[in-house]
Structure formats: structure tokens, C-alpha cells
Amino acid sequence: MNKRTWLRLLAALMAFAMLTAACSSDGDDSDTVASDDGEADGEADGEGDGTDSGDDEDIEMVQGGDLLATVQARGTVNCGVSPNSIAFSEEQPDGSRTGFDADYCRVIAAAVFGDAEAVEFFPLTAAERFTAVQTGEVDLLQRNTTFTQSRDSDLGMDFGPTTYYDGQQLMGRASDGFDSSSGVGDIDGSIVCTNAGTTTEKNIADAADAAGVSITVQTFEDFDQVTAAFIDGGCDLATTDGSGLVGRKAEQQPDGEEWVIFPAAPISKEPLGPTYGQNDSQWADVINWATYATFIADEFGVTSANVDDMKANPPTPEIGRLLGGEGEVQSLMGLDADAFYNVIKLVGNYDEIYEANLVPVGLTRVGSANAQWTDGGLIYAPPAR
Ligand SMILES: N[C@@H](CCC(=O)N[C@@H](CS)C(=O)NCC(=O)O)C(=O)O
To answer: What is the pTM assigned to this prediction?
Structure first.
């Protein structure tokens, strides 16, 4: 058995062991988080947030560092997404997948293949997602995934540009006395539910501890289960990224009931964006610059509707380069010169993707961190040159 085969076998065995550990913790784990013991241990055992995932050095070698060639030979991008995250990743009755994250999978397919539909979607729970990257099951995640230090350093991930600046909030019932001015100090004695393998289960434990309140954190395998338990009254509060709560309220709040999202200032920073295996610089370049292309096109008003005109008569040299004209750099990255023209033509710029998916559930862009830097936001791309 050669070294590479042996490493693949080892990684597969380790992944199986990790998956078994992850699966053993699904469903309804609960931990009481008391303010006085200093232990913020609301997480389910082995749920896969990844600081204890074993020997990352062997696993990362499975990625090989030549993923672009592998993807090109395969003919599709294998993209890990949430099974069901309203407005980000939703399976439609005809089997297609819609949402902001699903469209950012299409951005990569459009850049690599000139075909936005050359994507295979892999719905992954939070606990499964990083293992799926480590074992090479998926080429990247577009899965409401927060960029954190431990995921970047200890878990073998690399992170692309943040596509949605989020923050964690809580959702309760107005009939329980919660309103938009409520804060973590008001949740003493509550059962707080979230999905396992997330930053959110750790943050809420930290926040309760800091506020001096005692709560019971219950974790579930996915956020459908969390929402069902919240609707049934098994959970006093649901917590996750604010965007997830807004989506759930928009689609699942029962008639005659008022769900309240608080606190107004989120309890954490949750920068969400593409995530992929570390140490593959070419693949990272492709994902990062395809994403930046959507930011640059937004900044300069290049849309799917006008991109042909812009390509024919570029308003600036930078737009000319971005769309494959003289001085373009896409072909040096292993892509076609018109890779980013295809991204904008077939999927759209950042604002088009945001408007199509997030505005309908009430996630406004104007005045938020997700505005362009020129409008006071944080969406900012380095220059295409
Ligand atoms: N951003 C956090 C939370 C990610 C997360 O799992 N969010 C939920 C709520 S938006 C989700 O995607 N759920 C989809 C599902 O469980 O199907 C993280 O990276 O850990």
C-alpha cells in the first residue's frame, strides 16, 4: 500500500470514528449552565465543532492541494449546505435548492465551468459539516458557517470572504413577557434550544454565565427540530444566528402568536462565508476571487442585466479585467478569462443575490454591516488587477 493510499484509509477510519461520535450526541442533549460554576459547558459531546477532532495533519493531506483539477475533471462542484436554513438553503418541491448559500455554490460553479447548475448540493448538519470537508466529500461549505480562530487553526479549515455579517440572537414568545428590549439577563431559568456543533451553543452558555443567569441548553441535530420543539413549548427560547431566527419567524410563526427576537445588539459576531480545506492555495484563490467578483460588480453597478454592455464597453480598466478583457488574471488562476463574466451573467452580483434571497424574509441590507463599504458597510473587495 503506498503512502497516499494508506493516508486515505487512515483518514477514512478517523472520519468514521468522528462521525460515530457526532451521531451519538444527536437529539436532545441538555446541560444546565449555571452562572456560578464558571463552566460554560452547554455543548453536546463530540458534536464536531472540531477543537478535539484528532490528528488534523493526516486528514488535511487528503485534500491534496489540487482540488481545482479534481473538480474540473469531475465536472461538478460538491457544495456542502444547510439541510434547511430559510432564505439560505432550502430544498424546493421539485428537488432544486434555493437560497443565498445555494447561490454562492452556483457562483463557484459558474466560475469553474461557465455553468451555474454544475453543482451537487450536500445537505449537512452542523455537526457533520467539517468532517465532510476533511474527508473530501465536499469541495467547500456554503453553510451559515462562522469564521472562528479554532476552526481556522485547529480544524484544518480556511475561510473565504465573509458574505454575510451576522450575530447571534434569541427568539422567545411575547406571551412569555419577552419584547425587543429583553436581554440575556431576562432569561434566567429558561430552556434555551439550538443545534449541536455550532458556535451558538457555546456563545449562549458564555453569555448566560456573563449575565449571571442559570439556563438549560438543549441541543438538537438540526434547526428544524429546534423550531419544532420551540413551537411545541418544549423550549422557552430558540437561539442561533439572527438571520436564521428572522427566517424562521417569517415562515413559521403560528397565527395569533408573536415571536420576539432579542437582544437588539447580538451576543456574538458570526461572520458567515465560504469554508474549505486548508493549504490549497489555488482552490482558495478561485473561491475567494469568484466571491470578490460579486462584491466588485456590486460596487461598480455591474449586474446580470448589463454585464454584456459592460464587457463590450468597460467603464473602467478594472471592470474590463474582471470581465475577461485585457490584463485579466483569471486565466493565471486556472480559470477561463471570462470566468467572472459568467458569475455575474449567470448568478448576479452581491446585491442581486442578497435581494433575491434575503430581502423577501425581511433581512434588509441598507444600513447594515452587509452594505458596501462605500455605503458604510463591511462588504469590501481588494482590487481586480
Ligand atoms: N453560524 C453558526 C451556526 C450555524 C447553524 O447551524 N445555523 C443554523 C441556523 S441558521 C442552521 O444552519 N440550521 C440549518 C439546519 O439545521 O438545517 C456556526 O457556524 O456554528
So the answer is: 0.87
